[in-house]
Amino acid sequence: MKRADKHLKYSSASHRPQLDEARYGSLVKLLILLGVVVLAVLGIVLAAPTLAGFLKERAEAPAPEQAEEPASWADQIRTLPNDGWVGEASEWAGCLLYASGPSADSLSRLIRLNLESGEAETVPVPVTNGSVRCPYEHGDWILYGDYGSDGSGVIRLLDKKTGSDSELYTFAEGAPLLFCSFPYAVFTARTDPETYTLTILDVRNGNSVAAACFSGPEYGASNPSILNGQLVYANLDPDNPDQSLLRWISLSDGTRADTAPGMFVHDPILTESGVLAISGLHSPGSALYRIAPDGTAEPLARSVVRYGYSCGTPVFSANGTVFRIEGGSGRTVALSETGSLCEFLGATNSCVIWEDRSDPERPAFRYLVLN
What are the domain boundaries of the chain? Predict the structure, then answer.
């Protein structure tokens, strides 16, 4: 070092340099200080992307918040008449239609509940496989799945006038959930261990057509959605394997279109203003998004495992509470009492249904008609 003579003394005995202790201490302190500053700056630079991502995630997926609204409609929450367990529900002409039984594998009684009067009646339908699943009523018809616990079953159509029923579709295994907007029903069924097929069924005549195939449950287990003659479902984006496409089919003329949300999506629900979807496979890390026709994804809520759409607003459960996202303000407000261990089960045109596990020995099934 050219400046070493200012800080070094030489011994005539060894001719080896030795540091002056006082000046060495000052130099070491200066070097340590500079090192701390450099490491701090480097840490900020390296952490910036992670911090930005964390802040972005929090901004993109707001957390549900507790509000005062539950007290205003607490007295409007009702208990579904049931025999121990309830299945999927639909709504038509001011009535809920759902099946009930002692367990999820034995839902043999079909119930029609008048939402205004609260009166319930049993609807007699043929059941040969054990359970009534996904019932829909429209005019003189009732469409439902007659499924066995082994996954076999049939889709039946009952004529309420004559009492006669017809078998529209048969499953040897993997009997699926039905989604119906008369005169069409859609479902995705497993046709072999690795293949799932999305089928469109015309309930007027029993004609069916395969609309898409999926190799594996990632998209095969993603539910389709149908509304006003339009079908939408999620599938792999071939150009971006980590992302999804929302694929549209017009049921009137068969025309198709794709929307690219730029992310993975699951279980889309078609609404009047776009599509709702979650960003994961029903895990606590899933977030709920509203996706516009141009693919723009608007974050709505975090930690959404199951959700639905009722009365023009998304509804879901998180952390044991059922929430609604208000259409005007976009606020997330609670429908059920916080801490009551409630899990969202389903939604119809004007009604939200959930399971209340406050008493684990006797779970209750609640419903609330939204305004």
Answer: 1-42, 73-304, 306-371
Quote the Cα angle for 291-296-301, to 5°.
55
In 160-287, DSSP assigns E strands to 165-171, 179-181, 184-192, 195-202, 208-215, 225-227, 230-237, 240-250, 256-259, 266-271, 274-278
pTM of the model: 0.81
CB distance 69 to 333 below 8 Å: yes
Tokens 């002409």 belong to which residue?
A: 93
Ramachandran category for residue 116: left, alpha or beta (phi over 0 → left; psi -120 to 50 → alpha) = alpha
Neighbours of 157 (CB within 10 A): 20
The dotted CATH code for 73-304 is 2.120.10.80
Backbone angles phi, psi at 49, to 5 degrees: -60, -40
Tens of pLDDT along the chain (371 residues) come to: 333 333 333 333 333 333 343 433 443 344 444 454 444 444 433 444 433 333 333 334 555 544 445 546 778 999 999 999 999 999 999 999 999 999 999 999 999 999 999 999 999 999 999 999 999 999 999 999 999 999 999 999 999 999 999 999 999 988 999 999 999 999 999 988 889 999 999 999 999 999 999 998 999 999 999 999 999 999 999 999 999 999 999 999 999 999 999 999 999 999 988 999 999 998 889 999 999 999 999 999 999 999 999 999 999 998 889 999 987 778 898 999 877 899 999 999 999 999 999 988 889 999 999 97
